[in-house]
Design brief:
Layout (H helix, E strand, L loop, with lengths): L1 H36 L2 H7 L1 E4 L14 H6 L5 E3 L4 H11 L9 E4 L12 H5 L4 H17 L4 E2 L23 H16 L12 E5 L18 H8 L1 H8 L4 E4 L3 E2 L2 E2 L4 H11 L5 E3 L7 H4 L6 H11 L4 E2 L3 H11 L5 H17 L12 H8 L2 H14 L1 E5 L12 E5 L20 H4 L3 H6 L7 E5 L12 H10 L2 E7 L20 H9 L5 E6 L7 H6 L2 E4 L7 H9 L65 E3 L3 E2 L3 E2 L4 E10 L5 E11 L10 E10 L4 E9 L5 E2 L5 E2 L3 E10 L2 E9 L1
Parallel strand pairs: 1-2, 1-10, 2-3, 3-4, 5-6, 6-9, 12-13, 12-14, 14-15, 15-16, 19-27
Antiparallel strand pairs: 7-8, 11-16, 17-20, 18-20, 20-23, 21-22, 21-26, 24-25, 26-27
Helix pairs in contact: 1-14, 2-13, 6-7, 6-15, 6-16, 7-9, 12-13, 16-22
Bound molecules: beta-D-glucopyranose.
């Protein structure tokens, strides 16, 4: 029976593949016929993207005659145009063009559209791929209902420098986790494909290595070995291609001297060549023209030539293609085949999206209305928001708070804040004040009728004024329990928001000192878009919750965790430094010739004389109200051959009286290899929910493929030899075993 079912399934699978190929062939034929009808100017029009007249996310170039250009078929796509009404208005113009090629509408839907989700770095802390996929799905449903065809997400840049403001947009420092998250988000945005009206095209960005900007300064250059590029920065992009990402966006930075936008190696050789990417590449905002500033192009015309030849298919706001590409083709500097290839890629996506069949497919007022306030979306947002919160510390089980507590003082600038919970890359809607759940409201919905809630702001987020301290101290003194909130304003982390100091801004840590020194049971909650430095708080506050920016449902999610309705399960996706001087700091660094064993190992100390080697909080760290105990690791064999597999098992026990979820992490270390390898690399994780007192076996299966790395010839290989294997609760708290690949 099972065999028959399997057989049937494979027949269905094969015939669905065949059907796909037929559909693809049909689309390719339509693209070819359309291409034959197009003039050079019309082709170039498809490669041209403008910002809409209503909002902007970059420096605007001269608008020109937008209406006329759309009607002449000189615009292929618009960004920052949303809403059924506006998108329809512009699509109407495109329908007046000679060939009636529909416009594509693109938008930065980074962590939600109408319903705002936690910032991507926060979501990454959940390690819950299904929840992240569900979040991206909701964002796609809402954005597509508002006429958007295409999101400029996911951002899959690996980032190891918390000074860089855009760490908030990605999945953190780890390539393995980042690759799985890239895949989940692409799947979420694109759903089951573009047959319906609730899927948007994903865009993996910023290709490539944008997260490695020197000094964490946004837009800065990137200088790294090709091996590092392939090993650390490219895999999440490859994962996005494998998941079917429709588009890519290139990046502002140069890579080893060649701007990414004009970089043939990454766009043509790797992406479209080795990876066989079938979608199209859009430039980042103005990044073609910015090659002049890089000193790589002498003018906008040369920039256009370099970008087109390197494989940038669509020009976002540089006006380089629209102004110069026709001349470049006539002069033989850009081959017609290059233009045709770019246009084919763009048209193919418009066909796949069904826009030729119905250019107004995403312009349905009823759908827009229904999805606008779909209550189910908030349920999904609350679910991932509570899972994103990381319990950094919980001494004497100060948390969870009892709902019966006599009086709770809520102190700090985030207690009644609303829009600061949304974070960067989010939208302000006119009814936000009634939609966003503040911490105050979240707590109020939980506590008993007898609980007295007291409030004092204490200070602002960035202001230096301490006049509110006295009232805050007085308020805290009166209460049985204190919830203290601090963090970054919504626009302190994000694009062009690099900070040289990542301490808690303003006088907030001084407020923490005053309040914590009272000795009351106190939890400090930190809302921010990046790992911050808060040493005094870390050393003295009894309990700390890192809450990132959690979005529309922030207050509810915080209250779920505070009162134990949700037992925190988040784990840090980035290392938290002790001071900026430790940056860059990441768990999977290479061994040196003098690796220190601990902080007092002076002779072999490959770190600083005035600072610990270790981060304040390590990658993967995150506590729970439960306490989990790991057994030693059992290996299925001490050695295995390529083609076989190895199973590593631990038994995990919940020693507490509270059910909880643990993210069990598996790391490996290649002890000796032909190139130097990291001290640890994440290779697997498993989320396990255990009842109080429950014990369960958790197993991981490794094959030789999990042991691959790039050698000095950039070959992706594994080598026989000895490996260490670690399983544990964080990158710095693991059990250890050893095996051999024969
Ligand atoms: C950002 C991109 C974004 C684009 C359009 C650029 O400044 O780097 O990530 O998608 O603007 O808003």
């Amino acid at each position: 029976m099972i065999r028959i079912a399997t057989l049937l399934l494979s027949v269905c699978f094969i015939s669905s593949l065949a059907a796909q190929t037929t559909a693809e062939k049909r689309i390719d034929k339509s693209v070819d016929s359309l291409l034959k009808l197009m003039t050079l100017d019309e082709k170039i029009g498809q490669m041209n993207q403008y910002n809409g007249p209503w909002a902007a996310t970059g420096p605007l170039t001269n608008e020109g005659n937008l209406v006329g250009q759309i009607k002449e078929g000189k615009v292929g796509s618009m960004l920052n145009v949303t809403g059924v009404k506006r998108t329809r208005e512009l699509q109407d113009l495109a329908m007046q063009s000679r060939l009636k090629i529909p416009l594509l509408f693109g938008q930065d839907v980074i962590h939600g559209f109408r319903t705002i989700f936690p910032i991507p770095l926060g979501e990454a802390a959940s390690w819950d791929l299904k929840a992240m996929e569900a979040g991206a799905r909701v964002a796609a449903v809402e954005a597509s209902a508002a006429g958007v065809h295409w999101t400029f997400a996911p951002m899959v840049d690996i980032a190891r420098d918390p000074r860089w403001g855009r760490v908030m947009e990605g999945a953190g420092e780890d390539t393995y986790l980042g690759s799985l998250i890239a895949k989940a988000r692409v799947k979420g945005f694109q759903g089951n494909g573009f047959g319906d009206t609730a899927s948007v095209m994903a865009c993996a960005k910023h290709f490539a290595a944008y997260g490695a900007a020197v000094g964490g300064r946004d837009y800065n250059s990137v200088d790294m070995s090709l091996r590092q590029l392939h090993e650390t920065y490219l895999p999440p992009f490859k994962a996005a291609v494998d998941a079917g990402a429709a588009t890519f966006m290139n990046s502002f930075n140069d890579i080893n001297g060649i701007p990414a936008t004009g970089n043939k190696y990454i766009q043509r050789d790797i992406l479209k060549g080795q990876w066989k990417f079938k979608g199209f590449v859009v430039s980042d905002w103005g990044s073609i023209g910015e090659m002049i500033n890089h000193g790589y192009s002498k003018d906008n015309k040369e920039a256009g030539m370099q970008a087109a030849n390197a494989g940038s298919d669509m020009d976002m706001e540089s006006r380089s293609y629209i102004q110069h590409l026709a001349a470049l083709v006539k002069e033989g500097k850009v081959k017609m085949a290059v233009v045709d290839d770019a246009v084919r890629r763009i048209l193919r996506k418009k066909f796949e999206m069904g826009l030729f069949a119905d250019p107004y497919k995403f312009s349905n007022e009823n759908r827009e209305k229904t999805q606008w306030n779909n209550p189910q979306h908030r349920v999904v947002a609350r679910d991932i928001a509570k899972k994103s919160i990381v319990l950094l510390k919980n001494e004497k089980q100060v948390l969870p708070v009892s709902k019966q507590t006599g009086s709770i003082a809520l102190i700090g600038p985030f207690v009644k804040a609303k829009s600061d919970h949304l974070g960067f890359w989010s939208y302000d809607w006119p009814d936000d004040s009634t939609r966003i759940v503040s911490l105050w409201d979240g707590v109020k919905s939980k506590v008993s009728a007898q609980t007295k809630m007291l409030y004092a702001k204490g200070c602002g987020i960035t202001e230096l004024d301490k006049t509110g301290f006295a009232e805050a101290v007085e308020t805290a003194r009166k209460a049985d329990y204190v919830i203290l909130t601090v963090g970054e304003t919504r626009d302190m982390s994000g694009e062009a928001k690099s900070r040289s100091s990542i301490q808690l801004p303003g006088v907030q840590e001084e407020l923490v000192k005053e309040i914590v020194s009272l000795g009351k049971p106190t939890v400090v909650m930190i809302s921010a878009g990046r790992p911050l430095v808060f040493n005094w708080t870390a050393d003295h506050a009894p309990a700390i919750l890192y809450t990132w920016w959690l979005g529309t449902e922030a207050g509810n999610a915080m209250a779920d965790v505070l009162f134990g309705d949700y037992n925190p399960s988040g784990k840090l996706p980035m290392s938290f430094p002790r001071t900026e001087g430790q940056i860059p700091i990441y768990y999977n660094h290479y061994f040196t010739g003098r690796p220190a064993k601990n902080d007092s190992d002076r002779h072999y100390r490959s770190a600083y004389t005035d600072l610990s080697l270790y981060p304040k909080y390590a990658f993967g760290h995150g506590l729970s109200y439960s306490s989990f105990e790991y057994s030693e690791i059992q290996l299925s064999a001490p050695a295995f051959h390529a083609g076989q597999s190895l199973t590593a098992t631990v038994s995990l026990t919940n020693k507490s009286k509270t059910a909880g979820t643990e993210t069990v992490q598996l790391y490996i270390r290649d002890i000796t290899a032909s190139v130097v390898r990291p001290v640890k690399e994440l290779k697997g994780f498993s989320q396990v929910t255990l009842a109080a007192g429950e014990t369960r076996s958790v197993s991981f299966t490794l094959t030789a493929d999990d042991l691959r790395f790039y050698n000095d010839q950039l070959q992706y290989i594994y080598e026989p030899g000895k490996f260490k294997l670690f399983i544990g609760t964080s990158s710095d708290n693991v059990k250890e075993a050893e095996f051999e690949l024969k």
